[in-house]
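As a representative case, we now present a protein record of this kind.
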Amino acid sequence: MGVNRIIKTLVIGELNPDIIFSGLRRFPVPGEETLANDMDLTLGSSSAIFAVALSRLGVKVEMASKVGADFFGDFTVKKLEKNGVGIDKMIFDKKIKTGITVSLSTPEDRGFVTFLGSISQLNINDIDISYFLNFKHLHISSYFLLKGLKKDIPYIFEIAKKRGLTTSLDTGFDPDNIWEMNLKRVLPNVDVFLPNNIEALHLQKKTSVEEAVKFLGNYCENVVVKLGEEGAVSYSKDGLISLGAFKVKSVDTTGAGDNFNAGFIYGFLNGFSTRKCLEMANACGAISTTEIGGTTASPRLKELKNFLKKQHLNTNRFNN
């Protein structure tokens, strides 16, 4: 069973390459040097990793973003195109530099250093609202990094809903540690909200993830919180559901959350139950950590189904 290709998804968000240093025993501290086992230049950014991961599962995806007219801009857009993501709405700006992230990854966690560049320059004038009519779903990632677009994201979601699209949002981390987000404006037109546990707790100052999920559920019908090695928890019309993570030999955790998002949205677009969506999301996140880079190990649908079979899950869960 595969997704219907007419379910077209538009992804709006940041686009940059990642320079990944993997296999660190520990994160560097001032005045000391830490060695990495490997290094790679790969497609980065939450939005792009999500777009590629969802495309691998069979959904037709296009991305709207802005990059500089430089090597890194060319690199990222070509990577998107090579992975089947539409690039018709990409903007190359000669006046700015493409953003870039350096990822420091241990087997258990990762840290990032990002130069925003073109990421912060994306704005509402770069988004063709009439283009929404060509799509069934809209996803936006990295709310806090999109400094030029952030104030208009509630409007974008509102228009998308009026045009009949379903919607999803992953805020990403706030590097300024301010966490200023008007939940009453942003979330009512979001169908699936996908923060991780740290982000969820920061957004509304609750003391537990369960409290945070339920609180956020006052504004959004489907709240899904990623818990890393502990799996994920969701709150929706199906109630509170918690599922543990799958155990794999993890090499690089970069992009695991974005692959998780793709697995969940794949199930959501196909009308699966929340539990099925969580199973697929956990599996996509786990598989993605088995190779270096956010998209290198993003599974295709057949690989995902085979993985779940090996985990002794009931394959009938894939049936509508």
Observations:
- Residues 111 and 143 are 18 Å apart (CA to CA).
- The mean pLDDT is 91.
- The domain at 8-15+46-97+125-318 is CATH 3.40.1190.20 (UDP-N-acetylmuramoyl-L-alanine:D-glutamate ligase).
- The chain has one domain: 8-15+46-97+125-318.
